[in-house]
């Protein structure tokens, strides 16, 4: 049996490694297509791009690994079935679960490794990736000026050229607008017959050499935001044969951002950190609700003290007739007036007082509602972060279970289909993976919108696919022809034959 186990493992490991790197390559290419605009033309060094691709590869492992397991199990058992090796093993008295035993143990080890990867490696990779990607986005593109188009990539300067030499770095027909004086834009213009632009070695400034030009400088009053025609202004014209200037270029050099700025994101945390932050958020939420309750209750009072002297005397005279009104002399919460006939108290007021009382009540209700809405916004923010923490916590477990379930879908399905290679297995794997991805995305959306609890949304795909894996394993173990195309062909041939006889 040891030789059989080694044979089964060899048949499975080769397709697994191949399909894993193929899936990884496709997903990394998808990442590059998504962020290619942020990386092109930045003059990034090779080691920065290599580091970016490494972290991107680690980030897509949770999607590549389950797909690779599904495809590899389909291919390996499809090849065994197509070459009648499964038939020979079954005829020797070896059942399909016994054939799958070494691969089941191997899949359990892979699932455990996937959990460790998701909990320990993936948060660090996400932190490195997003901090590096943000740093790349903050880097300005390399200096690339086009002919007859104003280039505004330099701070406070706009440059336009008529044409440039194809053999050297000479530029012709140069026009430069200096916008450093924000009060009077376009008041400083330089025209030159020819010139050169060179970037300094530190990429922090631009060396500008101009020949045969003129500078027009209209000195606007800095205390005024515009140049008026009826006011006298200083106007200066400078002709030059050669002029050299340095213009600062901000953001042209690549600077790494501090990774600590991104550590608060849920994708950058392991299970221990997520559990700790979830507890802290839950405590904060309880505090907010605790503060909200007395604030709401304190807004409901019988406002007796706001009445004038005449109205108080009126109430006192009526209170002598109804002893239950004596308790209204003090401002108490509404619970304290459970035995008081408030309608009788209200009817003692005159029309003007009644209007005032109703206005005060409406105003107090609006103020209370505004306080509740303000407090609820804070509670909703906490709920959003709390749900995000719980979703990420459950995702640490969904990856290992996805690997395990996809094996029990792919292996029996390959034994039933009995087709190896990259044809049918690829089609079936992609269909199953799309089905899994749609369900997982649907559950994730329901969890984020707080329609379902996080554990229900994140485990929805597992709950749906697990019975499918059990059903396919049972059918494969009992030699069912449920997905055998030849069986359906024979069935329809017999059916047509019966119709012909009739």
Short structural description:
The chain is of the alpha+beta class and 502 residues long. It contains 13 helices and 6 strands.
Describe the structure.
With 502 residues, the chain is α+β, with helices and mostly antiparallel strands. It has a domain at 151-248: SH3 type barrels (Roll), CATH 2.30.30. The chain has helices spanning 2-39, 46-59, 61-82, 85-91, 96-138, 271-297, 309-321, 342-347, 351-417, 424-448, 454-458, 460-477, 485-501, and strands spanning 151-154, 157-164, 170-178, 188-199, 205-219, 234-248. It starts with a helix and ends with a helix. Strand 4 and strand 5 (205-219) form a beta hairpin. A six-stranded antiparallel beta sheet has the order 1-2-3-4-5-6, with no helix packed on it. The protein contains 13 helices and six strands.
Overall shape: it is flat
| Beta strand % | 5-15%
Structural class based on helices, strands and sheet pairing? alpha+beta
Distance between the termini: 54 Å
The succession of helices and strands, N to C, reads HHHHHEEEEEEHHHHHHHH
What's the arrangement of secondary structure elements?
Layout: H1 2-39, H2 46-59, H3 61-82, H4 85-91, H5 96-138, E1 151-154, E2 157-164, E3 170-178, E4 188-199, E5 205-219, E6 234-248, H6 271-297, H7 309-321, H8 342-347, H9 351-417, H10 424-448, H11 454-458, H12 460-477, H13 485-501
Helix pairs in contact: 1-3, 1-5, 2-5, 3-9, 3-10, 5-9, 6-9, 9-10, 9-12, 10-12
């Amino acid at each position: 049996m040891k030789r059989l186990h080694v044979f089964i493992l060899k048949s499975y490991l080769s397709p697994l490694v191949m399909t894993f790197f193929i899936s990884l390559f496709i997903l990394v290419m998808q990442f590059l297509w998504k962020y290619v605009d942020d990386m092109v033309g930045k003059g990034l060094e090779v080691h920065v791009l290599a580091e970016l691709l490494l972290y991107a590869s680690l980030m897509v492992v949770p999607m590549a690994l389950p797909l690779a397991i599904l495809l590899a199990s389909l291919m390996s058992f499809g090849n065994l079935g197509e070459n009648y090796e499964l038939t020979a093993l079954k005829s020797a008295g070896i059942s399909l679960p016994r054939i799958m035993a070494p691969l089941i143990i191997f899949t359990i080890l892979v699932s455990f490794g996937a959990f460790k990867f998701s909990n320990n490696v993936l948060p660090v990779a996400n932190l490195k990736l997003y901090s590096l990607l943000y740093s790349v986005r903050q880097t300005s593109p390399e200096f690339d000026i086009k002919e007859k188009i104003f280039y505004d990539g330099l701070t406070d300067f706009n440059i336009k050229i008529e044409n440039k030499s194809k053999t050297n770095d000479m530029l012709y027909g140069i026009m430069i607008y200096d916008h450093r004086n924000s009060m009077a834009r376009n008041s400083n213009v330089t025209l030159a017959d020819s010139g050169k632009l060179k970037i300094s070695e530190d990429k922090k400034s631009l060396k500008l050499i101009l020949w045969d030009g003129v500078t027009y400088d209209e000195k606007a009053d800095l205390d005024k935001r515009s140049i008026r025609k009826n006011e006298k202004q200083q106007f200066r014209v400078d002709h030059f044969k050669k002029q050299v200037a340095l213009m600062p270029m901000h953001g042209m050099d690549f600077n790494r951002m501090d990774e600590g700025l991104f550590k608060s994101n849920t994708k950058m945390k392991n299970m221990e950190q997520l559990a700790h932050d979830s507890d802290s958020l839950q405590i904060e939420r309880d505090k907010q609700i605790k503060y909200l309750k007395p604030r709401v209750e304190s807004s409901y009072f019988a406002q007796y003290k706001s009445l004038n002297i005449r109205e108080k005397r009126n109430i006192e005279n009526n209170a002598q007739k109804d002893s239950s009104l004596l308790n209204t002399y003090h401002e108490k919460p509404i619970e304290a007036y459970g035995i008081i006939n408030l309608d009788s108290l209200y009817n003692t007021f005159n029309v003007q007082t009644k209007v005032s009382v109703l206005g005060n009540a409406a105003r107090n209700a609006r103020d209370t509602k505004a306080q509740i809405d303000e407090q609820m916004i804070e509670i909703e923010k906490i709920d959003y972060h709390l749900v995000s923490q719980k979703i990420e916590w459950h995702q640490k477990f969904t990856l290992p279970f996805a690997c395990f379930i996809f094996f029990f879908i792919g292996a029996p399905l390959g034994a039933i289909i009995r087709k190896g290679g990259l044809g049918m297995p690829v089609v079936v794997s992609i269909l199953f993976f799309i089905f899994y991805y749609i369900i997982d995305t649907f559950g994730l959306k329901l969890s984020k919108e707080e329609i379902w609890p996080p554990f229900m949304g994140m485990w929805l795909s597992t709950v749906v696919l697990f019975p499918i894996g059990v059903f396919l394993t049972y059918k494969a173990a009992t030699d069912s022809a449920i997905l055998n195309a030849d069986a359906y062909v024979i069935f329809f041939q017999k059916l047509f034959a019966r119709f012909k006889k009739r």
